[in-house]
Design goal:
The protein contains 1 helix and 9 strands; from the N terminus they run αβββββββββ. By secondary structure, the protein is α+β, with helices and mostly antiparallel strands. Strands 2, 3, 5, 6, 7 and 8 form a 6-stranded antiparallel β-sheet that branches. The longest helix is centred in the N-terminal third of the chain and has 20 residues.
């Protein structure tokens, strides 16, 4: 009886075995385990502007719609306040130009507030970092 697999079968098995080992090494680097070779990208997450919305009597307003508009490009981002009257939906993707921030709740509107950005290589930081908007009756 002749050889099963023919000439060179052992060589092919060694090659495929090596690929399996290589694949397992590469996949090991994809888990969440600490690694000395991993670099955390601190520039990945955009910085946000904290916006608080209050009623004229000082109560925080849940469900208020907050819109920030870039004054040069006219691009806007809108967020909704949580149960503490806060949204962090406005972020540095609107930078570096100044933005106008306004909130509405029902028929009540806040006066617009201007926010500037201070930018470095990685991020643009809102100035001020927190804006409190008060609804008018």
């Amino acid at each position: 009886m002749g050889r099963v697999g023919g000439v060179g079968m052992g060589k092919r098995l060694r090659t495929y075995g090596g690929l399996g080992l290589l694949a397992s090494v590469l996949l090991t680097g994809c888990d969440d385990a600490p690694s000395a070779n991993r670099h955390e990208d601190t520039c990945a997450e955009p910085l946000t502007l904290r916006v608080e919305v209050m009623s004229s009597d000082g109560a925080y307003i849940q469900g208020a719609s907050v819109t920030a508009t870039n004054l040069e490009s006219n691009i806007s981002i809108t967020g909704v306040t949580d149960d503490r009257g806060v949204t962090t939906a406005i972020n540095e993707t609107l930078a570096p130009s100044p933005i106008r921030v306004v909130a509405t709740a029902g028929s009540h509107v806040t006066p617009a507030q201007r926010v500037e950005w201070t930018c470095d290589v990685c991020h643009c930081t809102p100035v001020p970092a927190t804006v409190t908007l008060q609804l008018k009756d």
